[in-house]
Amino acid sequence: MAVPVSLFFFTTLFSCFVISDQQPLLDSLEQDAVYQVLHSVNPTIPWRSLFSDDLCSSPPHGVVCGYFIEPTNHTTFHIIELSFGYVSDYTPNPPCTSNSTLSPLIFTSFKYLRKLFFYQCFTETPVSVPNNVPESFGSSLEELVFIENPSLVGSLSGIITNYTNLRRLVFSGNGVYGNVPDKVGELVGLEEITLSRNKLSGGFSFSLAKLKKLRVLDLSQNYFDGNAPDEMSNLTQLFKLDFSNNNFSGKIPESFGSLQSLEFLDLSFNRFGNFGVPLFLAEMPRLREVYLSGNLLGGQIPEIWENLRGILGIGFSGMNLVGEIPASMGLHLKNLCYLGLDNNKLQGSVPEEFGVLEFAEINLENNNLSGKVPFSAKFSLKVGLKLKLNGNPDLCVGEGFSINKNVSGSLGQLKLCKEPEIPNAVQFNGGSSSALMAYSRVLLFLVFCLVMLMVMA
Fold first, then answer.
1. Domains (ranges, CATH) in the chain?
2. DSSP states of 188-226 as a string?
3. pTM for the whole thing?
4. pLDDT for 327-341, tens place per residue?
């Protein structure tokens, strides 16, 4: 097997090899396959005339060569990266067209390929996911990435082979459907599995037991159902877990609490229910964002926030929560940037401690909150529409808000609090005779009671 060598000194080495070997850098069959693949992606560009020299010396952006030293000390050059679809001015990959196709040569002609990337290439004309990719393909593949290709349709089972070196498996915003192949659970080198925004369905079908290097697991915005996987304890490096916008149901597995490296947890808009906010959140010290909105978990907001001082975002909207908002949330979560508690059944007042969260987006709409809000007019002007309190008819603001007509956000729409009525003290100087007589009677009664106590003693 050829040994790959760094491309750092590619230009110098290229000149040396041309002089010494007097042979093309890239095999003619492999170079012809590159031209055909480029034509399948964008037939409007004359690739052969624009890049008529050896493709390893002056290739279009997105086509990358590497050189390898064979056991015989003979150096060969091969394609190691193919990236298609314009991304930005800094990564001007060959642009795709509405009629782009997926050439089968990709899976048969580049046995040294490490990265295959398609971005917005298959957007109109339907393109099928290959269903018979040879096992030999991908022995060196490290990244398989398809992003924003809505016309790419079919099952993933045909394109997932024995990728022994695969680190990133990304299919996001495509038209793929069906189950996730069991083979995914055998790709022990995976660090990222992102299969978001597709049409995947069924239960959680692949095992996580062997994926000890996994750092990102994102299955959001699909049609997965059944229970969430309960085999998380070995995922010690996982920092992002996103199952949002699916149909997972039952109880959120307690094993999620063993994810000590997790920073981002999004389980929102599934069908988890009736088990309350998970207490295991307190066991995840690195957690920075947690979103559970849209699951009817019910119950009260637990007192777990002392252990989660680094939290930046909390999404607990529409969860059928009851009871009061814990003051400890405002006391401990000084770094909070977003708090969503809207569309619940929360009661009581907004904790005074929330008045210091001056840079947070706070949504408390559509609850049963009451009393005077702790936010100042200055705070409302600063955060504007990020402070949302509507739908709580018994909330009110102090008199200071009636002066400022430009208060933005929902604070300006709340009613003024009624000041409590304090009865006037009895005036003895110049007071009425009836008041004096009432005071005298009370005084005489107290003296009588004191005398009777002394006699009885």
1. 126-263 (3.80.10.10), 273-419 (3.80.10.10)
2. TT-SEEE--SSEEEES--S--TT-TT--EEE--SSEEEE
3. 0.85
4. 999 999 999 999 999
